Amino acid sequence: MMDELQIPETPEKEVLRWVQVLLGLVLALLTLLCGFASVTMLVVPNEKSPILTILVGLILLLGCLWVFEKCFRLLAGRKNRGALMAPNTLRVVSYFFLALPVAGFFTGYYRKMGLVAIFQAVMYFFSFLGLRALARKREASAVTNEQTKA
Fold first, then answer.
1. Which one of 39, 70, 118, 121 is separated from 149 by 20 to 30 angstroms, measured CA to CA?
2. According to the 3-state scheme, what is the secondary structure of the chain?
3. Whole-structure pTM value
């Protein structure tokens, strides 16, 4: 239902190269820090639930590797189908933004944090919608680019 909406044709603006490099460096440093914390979870697992700690550590480490690959793309200036992420990747990431408010509901986060949690949930939902719209726009522009080349 939402994928059927027409998106107006506006060209995506390219971020300046020096901003891409700066963002890539900052994000890479943060990712290395998070990766170090994930490796620490693997080396020194929790005594109460070591299997869960190792499983969560592996998942976080894989996420860090994925983000680190995106940092490399930012630093090297390499793009995937004209952008940093493909449309399908944007859709998968959008579902993670949708899962966060749902997980907060089951963990009692809304009772603990109140209005801040509700505001975060609304922003996560808008992020979900924005990423889905961006994926549709990039997919539509890729189709029109292929048609003009043929």
1. 70
2. CHHHCCCCCCCCCCCCHHHHHHHHHHHHHHHHHHHHHHHHHHHCCCCCCHHHHHHHHHHHHHHHHHHHHHHHHHHHCCCECCECCCHHHHHHHHHHHHHHHHHHHHHCHHHHHCHHHHHHHHHHHHHHHHHHHHHHHHHHHHHHHHHHHC
3. 0.62
